[in-house]
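[recover] target loaded
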C-alpha cells in the first residue's frame, strides 16, 4: 500500500525506511554493500582517515523513498547529510519532497514512527491546503 509520508533513519551501517499513515506503516531496512568502519586519522599520515561514502547505499535509500510525497530524514550523525548531498546530485525529483532533516539518536521503530507522525502532524498544518476538486 502506498503512503504519502515517509521517514528514513540512517547512519553509515543501515537505513530504516517507513512509509506510513496514522494507522499503519510499511518498513524496509537497507544495508550498504560495504559497511563503513570507523577510521581514525594517524598523526603524520596524509588524508582524512575517513572511508569514501558508499554512493550505492544512498542510491538504494533514495529508491526506497522515491514514491513518497513528503519525507523526513533523521539520524545521529553525518549520513543524513550525505544522503541529502546524494539526492541533490543524482535524484533531483526527490529534492523538494524532503521536507525536514533532524538529528535523532537511535530510536526504536515505534519511537521513530511516533516522532515522524508528530512531526508531520505539525508540518502538514503549516503547508498550504489544496482546494477540493
Amino acid at each position: 500500500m502506498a503512503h504519502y509520508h515517509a521517514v528514513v533513519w540512517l547512519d553509515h551501517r543501515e537505513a530504516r525506511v517507513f512509509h506510513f499513515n496514522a494507522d499503519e506503516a510499511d518498513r524496509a531496512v537497507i544495508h550498504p554493500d560495504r559497511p563503513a568502519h570507523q577510521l581514525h586519522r594517524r598523526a603524520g599520515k596524509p588524508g582524512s582517515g575517513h572511508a569514501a561514502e558508499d554512493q550505492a547505499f544512498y542510491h538504494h535509500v533514495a529508491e526506497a523513498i522515491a514514491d513518497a510525497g513528503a519525507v523526513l530524514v533523521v539520524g545521529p550523525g553525518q549520513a543524513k547529510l550525505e544522503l541529502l548531498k546524494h539526492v541533490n546530485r543524482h535524484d533531483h525529483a526527490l529534492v523538494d519532497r524532503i521536507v525536514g532533516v533532524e538529528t535523532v539518536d537511535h530510536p526504536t521503530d515505534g519511537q521513530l514512527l511516533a516522532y515522524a507522525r508528530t512531526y508531520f502532524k505539525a508540518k502538514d498544518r503549516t503547508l498550504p491546503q489544496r482546494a477540493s476538486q
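[recover] notes: The chain is about 30% helix and 25% strand.
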